């Protein structure tokens, strides 16, 4: 998730999205659906795929 956040901050949206999807997949494999990291991963993916990303 840190990699996706960093890539997103650098404006590398497609790479950030791929990293965020990979992080979410890893979370889904190992964590309970209600775990807080699951929500963080979903939020990160939503941020990286938003039409107008936040600065």
Secondary-structure element order, N to C: HHH
Low-confidence stretches: none
| Global shape | elongated
In whole angstroms, how far apart are the ends?
18 Å
Strand content bin: under 5%
How much helicity do the residues have? over 70%
Number of strands: 0
Oligomeric status = single chain
Number of helices: 3
Major sheet details: none
Rg measurement, Å: 11 Å
Q: What is the average of the pLDDT values?
A: 90
The computed structural class is mainly alpha
What does this structure look like?
By secondary structure, the protein is mainly alpha-helical. It has helices at residues 2-9, 13-30, 36-49. It starts with a helix and ends in a 6-residue tail after the last helix. The model has no long low-confidence stretch (mean pLDDT 90).
Present the secondary structure layout:
Elements: H1 2-9, H2 13-30, H3 36-49
Helix pairs in contact: 1-2, 2-3
């Amino acid at each position: 998730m840190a990699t996706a956040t960093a890539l997103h901050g650098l404006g590398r949206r497609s790479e950030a999205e791929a990293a965020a999807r990979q992080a979410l997949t890893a979370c889904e494999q190992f964590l309970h659906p209600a775990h807080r990291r699951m929500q963080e991963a979903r939020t990160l993916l939503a941020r990286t795929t938003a039409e107008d990303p936040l600065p």
